[in-house]
Specification:
3 strands; Sufe protein. Chain: A; alpha+beta; 5 helices; binds FE2/S2 (inorganic) cluster; 141 residues
């Protein structure tokens, strides 16, 4: 049987980058996956509109860990606007793909990041991320 996960997924699952809590984050996103009930927290540090650091913590599966690890790597150094363009599909592609049944796991990282940006913007400007709400009920991938 062929391995369902790419080498990159296995690498980020076995050696996740940026795991743990962050002291004094500028934004925190906490979300739950409506499909499986797993949860994720993401922390960001922002300087001059650039994400200078990102970390995550999850009670999620291997695919959630791998996508969050890759997502934090990809958003670091980007402006908020650039990072917001990063979709869960792009993160999955950067990992050389996920099995279709695990695509919902990658949404956790995207939602947690958007939640962290929402939190950051609310603290900074009083207004959160326009049009954002966590995927609570429905989901299409
Ligand atoms: S099964 Fe829940 S995040 Fe993957």
């Amino acid at each position: 049987m062929a391995a369902p996960y790419s080498k990159k997924v296995m690498d980020h699952f076995m050696h996740p980058r940026n795991v743990g809590e962050m002291e004094n984050p500028d934004g925190i996103g906490k979300v739950g996956n409506p499909v499986c009930g797993d949860i994720m927290e993401m922390y960001i540090k922002v300087k001059d509109n650039v994400i200078v650091d990102a970390k995550f913590k999850t009670f999620g599966c291997g695919a959630a860990i791998a996508t969050s690890s890759m997502a934090t790597e990809l958003i670091k150094g980007k402006t908020i606007e650039e990072a917001l363009k990063l979709t869960n599909k792009a993160v999955a592609e950067a990992l050389d793909g996920l099995p279709p049944v695990k695509m919902h796991c990658s949404v956790l990282a995207e939602d947690a990041f958007k939640g962290a940006v929402d939190d950051y913007l609310k603290k900074k400007t009083g207004v959160g991320l326009q049009g954002w709400r966590p995927h609570e009920e429905d989901h299409e991938h």
